[in-house]
Amino acid sequence: MAALYEGYTLCGLVPDQNLSSSGIQGIEEERDRDHVVVTDSTRSVTLYKVSDQKPLGSWTVKQGQKLTCPAVFNSQTNEYVAVTDNKVIRIWKEDDILLDKAFKATVSSDVWKVHCTHGGEPVVLFQRGAVRLLDSLLAAPQQPIEEVLAQEETIRWSTIIVAETQQFIIITTEQKGEHFLYLQRLNPNSVQRYRLEREEPGLSPLSFSAIYKDKHICLLYLYPNGHMYQSVLSVRGLGTEEGVQALPLPRSLLLGLPVGDGQLEAASAMALDEAHVAVVGVPHPSAGGGKDFLCIWNTNFQTLQAGKEMAGKIYGQLWSYSNKVFIPHGKTLSIIPFECPKSSLASALGKLKHTKTEGELNQTCHTLRTTRKSQSTTNLTTDQVLELIKTAPVEEIQKEVEGFLTRSEFQDLQPSVGQLALTLVSRSLADPAFYSSSTLAQLVHTRCLCHSVCPDLVLLALEKKDYFLCQLCLQFFPDIPEAVTCACLKTRAEDKKKASAPSQLICPVGLHKAVLINEILQTPYSDTFLLPHLKDLSSQNVMLFLQYLQFLYLKYSQDAFPQMEGFRSPSLSQIMDWVCLLLDAHFTVLVMTPEAKGLLLNLHSFVKSQVRLVSELGKIEGSLQQLHKMKAKESIGQYSIEIIELF
């Protein structure tokens, strides 16, 4: 199941006065996955290091000049390429200080955009549809540029894709309400023109995205009515450049997204891989109005996989590089890391974090359909159940929700389950006397929920000291933020034992907290985002947590603990990773705490024993490799003695 992780700010924005534009013209990945080039809408290009959000260089054109296309990085020459005032191509290196003193060349026709793939030569796309490789253009900047587009036909979007070692330029255009697509191959040059099918009268695509898969180019485009279409283009058999005829472009409806009241305006969709698409500016199906979300949808199974609310105005812009989404919103350019595991029906319905048996998902469905069928006497719709949750007592809600889950088809549950959970949590937060633990647990068990769909659920469970529900959420939700993980660590579940120097073979925490910590140890996390929250833990919590980790380690060393059937336990590597994280976050405090001295010495001995084990294994590594390389003799009798010499 796809997941959106905790985001961070790359830089601030300077949107225009009426907030119609974010002030960003383009974002391009640079020489590696940790650098991006950001071009604003007026005069500046800035190089950022993504991992620490630091600007490494910035270049600005003179007052009165304007950047008219986003800068790109040419990895062949380690140079940047941009266009100012539509016709002036500028090229510079990272150590150049002033753009005005860098190389520039004026061409004879207006440039739409410069495209560049990693390792490829930059390609210049002109506003009238002609294409030139950068080097051939600079050899004669004033060469005549032909017009490919028809009269009154204008470019709306373009991109470059590498397919079968060849570069393809994809252009979408508009002419008198009709929309066209050009697929142009470079070296040898060939082009094909397609006509897009018409949508409702007056509707034009809001965004386009393209990926290459299965030897075809897949084009995704989103309309204001929430319809997302896919068209598949062959990269073979393109026509010649002369006399291009517009062929009809078949399409298929990929998703029907919710639009709320009216139609979409500032919305955008981008393909992340073969089965997932990121969408911004489209209402979350389980949230109320007035909120903007970044969502990931699974296009194979048409399910919402993850969602994250974005504060401030959404501008309908979206970029994606190296499993990170770059999204301008309000006055901030944010980076949201994401993960899209290989798609399957089970994972699309929420079954991702652990795999037990292949029939487990079917068993869940069977249980929902056969348990207490007779208890629900009415067939309520989703809206009726939602209204019931707002006022009815716990017992009635539990009965009707169970009946609703029993009647519903499993593949249709996800949007409904999200709405039910949000309504239950909202009432529980507003009315302290109301709380339906079993109903919430049953909704989590459907595996149609994730943290981003119902972000207050885990914190509500902690507030109600519902540690079983916390355990289920940690077990089934793939996108729990690191801040919530640490909030679970702070809970006081059956700690009546003292934290001061317990016996190493006695569990220092109660059963409920031990089970909760075991789930925490197996929860996905990012070191960068987790460490700041770990530093907020009190020294007492840290000591208790380390003592429990020590207890787990000793259980592993006695071979009495690991992976008993039906018992979810962390791996040894997960235990040691968390020991290291806690020491990194609190080492200075622990060194200054007298009560921690014995614990630190014990942990030191654990690490020392691990190092010694690895060292001893290293000594016999060569011998083991020689044994592996030896060929077994073809004829061996019933009994034989063979002497092997190891050097």
Which features characterize this protein?
single chain; 647 residues; alpha+beta; Methylamine Dehydrogenase, Chain H; 5-stranded antiparallel sheet; 5-stranded mixed sheet; 29 strands; 29% helix; 27% strand; rRNA processing
Description:
This protein has 647 residues and is of the alpha+beta class. It has a domain at 21-148: 7 Propeller (Methylamine Dehydrogenase, Chain H). The chain contains 16 helices and 29 strands. A hairpin with a 3-residue loop joins β4 (35-40) and β5 (44-49). 39% of the residues are buried. Residues 346-377, 497-502 and 560-566 have low confidence and may be disordered. It holds the Pfam family Nol11_C.
Question: In DSSP terms, counting alpha (H) and pi (I) runs of 4 or more, how many helices?
Answer: 16
Structural class: alpha+beta
Coarse shape: globular
The portion of residues assigned to helices is: 25-40%
What is the CATH H-level superfamily of the domain at 21-148? YVTN repeat-like/Quinoprotein amine dehydrogenase
If classified by CATH, what would the architecture of the domain at 21-148 be? 7 Propeller
The beta-strand count equals: 29
Overall pLDDT metric: 83
State the major sheet: 5 strands, antiparallel
The CATH topology of the domain at 21-148:
Methylamine Dehydrogenase, Chain H
The CATH class assignment of the domain at 21-148 is Mainly Beta
Strand content: 25-35%
* Alpha carbon gyration radius: 30 Å
GO molecular function: RNA binding
InterPro entries: NOL11, Nol11_C, NOL11_N, WD40_repeat_dom_sf
GO cellular component, one term: nucleolus
Subcellular location: Nucleus, Nucleolus
